[in-house]
């Protein structure tokens, strides 16, 4: 006989099957247990497809009656693309429902639980809540702010340079570290770079992984529309590209860029305001944004207080040179009292490199 925590840990593991696939929905896992036996399990795999509870209850069949259901997120109670899971659990006649965390969506918060309790089902809340909240931190951020969860990534030498003074940067980090970056790209709705990075590196910003992976939308911040017309992000047609420009860019210049995969987004102000950009991206259902540089763009996101996570890779190389660029350029902070403070959440070796993941301290 396993404990509630052990079954919930199982449900959390199963939920992870949906990571990078369910946007704009959360990832959810469910496990059905009857008389100490796991009789059903399920994960939400894609928006519009059945929820985790539906898969698990279907698999349990008759055995679901009188069973206990472990689910990592409060069962939904509103008619979305699929009927509410709370109703399904009631009709199925389950005895007890153990929930890790409640849904932050105002449409749902607490309603699913209330429905279950009204139907006489025993509900236990908060088992492995921390882990469940962490698993859906992107979804919860998007629901709460209607703007994308922003992860800022850079790769630098040990002495903090992202390129040599002559602009060379291939490659600083190892194949293994760069593959890790592609894993981040594959689970993000969009990836963003500044036009200087497009001019310097002509990046493709696609996902090249042995196991494949979905290409995120490519976003280029380009106030005056300087992106070369023959740039990969314009020409290669492998992924959608949105170029964000200022209001001074003329109509006929924009037309030269637009094709079936490339669209121009004008924010209506001469310069790109990051907060306004994130609001517009949120409206276009971008729930997660991977910002891959360069240093000026990184600084503008930091100055806008718009960074939710930082992923930094350090290679055992020294580039040196006063002119060589560092990860965060722009204006920076003049006083130590104003610097961005973080807490380090993860430090790991990847091949010869080091990867550090840090999140801002909510000052
Ligand atoms: N120079 C390096 C990086 N460089 C990051 C960006 O400057 C590149 O333009 C971008 O990753 C290229 O994208 P691609 O064409 O899709 O491969 N990023 C890294 O992790 N390690 C590096 O050593
Ligand atoms: Zn549901």
Automatic annotation (TrEMBL):
Q: Where along the chain is the active site annotated? A: 53 (proton donor)
| Record: residues binding Zn(2+) | 51, 76, 85
Cofactor binding mode, per the note? Binds 1 zinc ion.
Q: Which residues form the CMP/dCMP-type deaminase domain?
A: 2-124
Q: Which reaction does it catalyse?
A: 5-amino-6-(5-phospho-D-ribitylamino)uracil + NADP(+) = 5-amino-6-(5-phospho-D-ribosylamino)uracil + NADPH + H(+); 2,5-diamino-6-hydroxy-4-(5-phosphoribosylamino)-pyrimidine + H2O + H(+) = 5-amino-6-(5-phospho-D-ribosylamino)uracil + NH4(+)
InterPro entries xrefs: APOBEC/CMP_deaminase_Zn-bd, CMP_dCMP_dom, Cytidine_deaminase-like, DHFR-like_dom_sf, Eubact_RibD, RibD_C, RibDG_C, Riboflavin_Biosynth_HTPR
- Residues binding NADP(+), per UniProt: 155, 169, 171, 197, 201, 223, 294-300
One GO term of the biological process aspect: riboflavin biosynthetic process
Q: Which CDD domains match?
A: Riboflavin_deaminase-reductase
Q: Name the pathway it acts in.
A: Cofactor biosynthesis; riboflavin biosynthesis; 5-amino-6-(D-ribitylamino)uracil from GTP: step 2/4; Cofactor biosynthesis; riboflavin biosynthesis; 5-amino-6-(D-ribitylamino)uracil from GTP: step 3/4
Q: Name one GO molecular function term.
A: NADP binding
For this UniProt record, the keywords arranged alphabetically read as follows: Hydrolase, Metal-binding, Multifunctional enzyme, NADP, Oxidoreductase, Riboflavin biosynthesis, Zinc
Q: Which domain of life is it from?
A: Bacteria
Where do the annotations place substrate binding?
A: 185, 205, 208, 292
Key word Repeat present in the record? no
Q: What Enzyme Commission number(s) appear in the record?
A: 3.5.4.26, 1.1.1.193
Cofactor(s) needed for function: Zn(2+)
Query: Which family, according to the similarity comment?
Result: In the N-terminal section; belongs to the cytidine and deoxycytidylate deaminase family. In the C-terminal section; belongs to the HTP reductase family.
Function as written in the Swiss-Prot or TrEMBL entry: Converts 2,5-diamino-6-(ribosylamino)-4(3h)-pyrimidinone 5'-phosphate into 5-amino-6-(ribosylamino)-2,4(1h,3h)-pyrimidinedione 5'-phosphate.
Q: What is this protein called?
A: Riboflavin biosynthesis protein RibD
Which organism is this entry from?
Saccharococcus thermophilus
Q: What is the lineage of its organism?
A: Bacteria, Bacillati, Bacillota, Bacilli, Bacillales
């Amino acid at each position: 006989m396993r404990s509630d925590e052990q079954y919930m840990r199982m449900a959390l593991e199963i939920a992870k099957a949906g990571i990078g696939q369910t946007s704009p929905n959360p990832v959810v896992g469910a496990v059905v247990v009857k008389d100490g036996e796991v009789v059903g399990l399920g994960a939400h795999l894609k928006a519009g497809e059945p929820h985790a509870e539906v898969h698990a209850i279907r698999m349990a069949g008759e055995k679901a009656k009188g069973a206990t259901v472990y689910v990592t997120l409060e069962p939904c109670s509103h008619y979305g693309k699929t009927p509410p899971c709370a109703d399904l659990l009631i009709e199925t006649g389950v005895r007890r429902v153990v929930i890790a965390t409640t849904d932050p969506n105002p449409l749902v918060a607490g309603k699913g639980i209330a429905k279950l309790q009204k139907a006489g089902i025993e509900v236990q809340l908060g088992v492995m809540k921390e882990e469940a909240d962490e698993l859906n931190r992107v979804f919860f951020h998007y629901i709460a702010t209607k703007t994308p969860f922003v992860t800022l990534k850079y790769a630098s030498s040990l002495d903090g340079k992202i390129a040599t003074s002559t602009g060379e940067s291939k490659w600083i980090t190892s194949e293994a570290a760069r593959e890790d970056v592609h894993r981040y790209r594959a689970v993000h709705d969009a990836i963003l770079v500044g036009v200087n990075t497009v001019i310097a590196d002509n990046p493709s910003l696609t996902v090249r992984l042995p196991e494949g992976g979905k290409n995120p939308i490519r976003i280029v911040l380009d106030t005056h529309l300087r992106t070369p017309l023959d740039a990969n992000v314009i020409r290669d047609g492998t992924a959608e590209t949105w170029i964000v420009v200022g209001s001074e860019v003329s109509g006929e210049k924009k037309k030269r860029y637009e094709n079936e995969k490339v669209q121009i987004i004008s924010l209506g102000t001469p310069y790109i305001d990051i907060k306004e950009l994130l609001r517009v991206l949120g409206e276009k259902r971008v729930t997660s944004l991977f910002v891959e540089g360069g240093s000026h763009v990184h600084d503008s996101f930091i100055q806008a207080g718009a960074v939710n996570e930082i992923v930094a890779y350090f290679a055992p190389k020294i580039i040196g040179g006063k002119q060589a660029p560092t990860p965060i350029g722009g204006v920076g902070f003049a006083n130590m009292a104003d610097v961005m403070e973080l807490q380090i959440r993860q430090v790991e070796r990847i091949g010869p490199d080091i990867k550090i993941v840090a999140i801002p301290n909510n000052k």
